[in-house]
Amino acid sequence: MTDGELYERAVAVAGRAYAPYSSFDVGAAALARDGRVIEGVNVENAAYPLGICAERTALARAVAEGYRPGDIEAIGITASPCGGCRQWLVEFRIERVTYRSESGEIVTTTPSSLLPDTFRF
Amino acid sequence: MTDGELYERAVAVAGRAYAPYSSFDVGAAALARDGRVIEGVNVENAAYPLGICAERTALARAVAEGYRPGDIEAIGITASPCGGCRQWLVEFRIERVTYRSESGEIVTTTPSSLLPDTFRF
Amino acid sequence: MTDGELYERAVAVAGRAYAPYSSFDVGAAALARDGRVIEGVNVENAAYPLGICAERTALARAVAEGYRPGDIEAIGITASPCGGCRQWLVEFRIERVTYRSESGEIVTTTPSSLLPDTFRF
Amino acid sequence: MTDGELYERAVAVAGRAYAPYSSFDVGAAALARDGRVIEGVNVENAAYPLGICAERTALARAVAEGYRPGDIEAIGITASPCGGCRQWLVEFRIERVTYRSESGEIVTTTPSSLLPDTFRF
């Protein structure tokens, strides 16, 4: 699966988002090293800070299915990931991130480009 | 599936948790009205506030698979849900919550008992 | 200071909320045992899950000013606290919580009534 | 006040952190355009995802004191900000961020360098 195809999977799943508060649907699709694709969408809550972004849904779901950090090779996202999700991309040691940038371009980059000089713990 | 069996599904999945910071593994299993069980675990992050609890993983995963609030009938959790997750149980209009309480008992109750007089938005 | 006066302090500060996404301003006022009142408001973010509620702003501010869990006696809030904030009220061992309930009544209660059977860690 | 002095203010306040779970104390100090310095520390919770970082405490406190995005000129932080906090630095349109990097250096940079190509909402 190419990065472009992974991004298209993210686009295809975005309509499942539960985003009644922002009306901003986001989809994500994570590619595991074994070839499986695990999808996620944003899930909002009436108490806004309790919501979860699409990337984190996809990655948390992957963990629940048995994957660990290091097992996810790439992720496609329908929007530029927020800072919180970028920290997850780093934690999961994902290699390639493909997303639609603010300017409308489909970009492929790395977590460390999106979150330079992050802390280690 | 009984509430007790649902709780056992939560216990069985808890070992998949990614909890290197707290070493506190939690599992959750949501029962959809169509009979499907959707499992979740807690997924922590080096930046602690960015982590996700097991219940929210299960419910976000359910949404990514096409379920909406109202479609989940019951949930089993290996620990007493935190306040943040209780707000999700309310948002999803879940009917029954079964968890292991602080005293070690397996309790079945409702979201509104766990989060009385919550706000509507 | 009475609980009613504390609630009025919360009402008075709510206008300072930064809530451009929900347009739902919330204020909170915490009463320390030494008599000081520490106020907070909700602060939202374009990435909704990164926002902070009014109660947590007030309590985090109290900590930054030198207070610890056990030092806050009571809190007033302009709305029913979300589940996430109820977990903070428990952590800070606050005795009395006064807020405007969904039915419009001003209620004084305890954190453990608002978050029964919570976990200890 | 220089950026170095602002960083020293962050170092000085870090000891007030409430971080019983990570034992990782963080301090932050925000400089408002009117010359005031507003300090924050991280405040953790037994439910890890409900905690708040030092930078967000400082900025939420600033809002509660009447400041708005655009009113904060610079911030000093004792550690590299997490992705979630970088999103706040962008939202508040802060000009300069000074922090101790992973390599131990004191660095001054901009929010957009720390969170390139972020989304607008």
Plain-language structure description:
With 121 residues, chain A is α+β, with helices and mostly antiparallel strands. The first copy, chain A, has a single domain, classed as Cytidine Deaminase, domain 2 (3-Layer(aba) Sandwich). The first copy, chain A, is 29% helix and 21% strand. Chain A is built from four helices and five strands, in the order H-E-E-H-E-H-E-E-H. The first copy, chain A, has a five-stranded mixed beta sheet. In chain A, a hairpin with a 4-residue loop joins strand 1 (27-32) and strand 2. Chain A is globular, with a radius of gyration of 13 Å. Chain A starts with a helix and ends in a 7-residue tail after the last helix.
| SSE succession of chain A | HEEHEHEEH
Structural class of the helices, strands and pairings of chain A? Answer: alpha+beta
Radius of gyration of chain A: 13 Å
Question: Biggest interface and which pair forms it?
Answer: A-B, 33 and 33 residues
Name the quaternary structure.
Answer: homotetramer
* CATH homologous superfamily descriptor of chain A: Cytidine Deaminase, domain 2
User: Approximately how much helix is present in the residues of chain A?
Assistant: 25-40%
- In CATH terms, what is the architecture of chain A? 3-Layer(aba) Sandwich
> How far is it from the N-terminal to the C-terminal residue of chain A, by CA?
33 Å
The largest sheet of chain A has its strands arranged as 2-1-3-4-5
User: What does the average pLDDT of chain A come to?
Assistant: 97
Number of helices of chain A: 4
Number of strands of chain A: 5
Q: Could you tell me the CATH topology label of chain A.
A: Cytidine Deaminase, domain 2
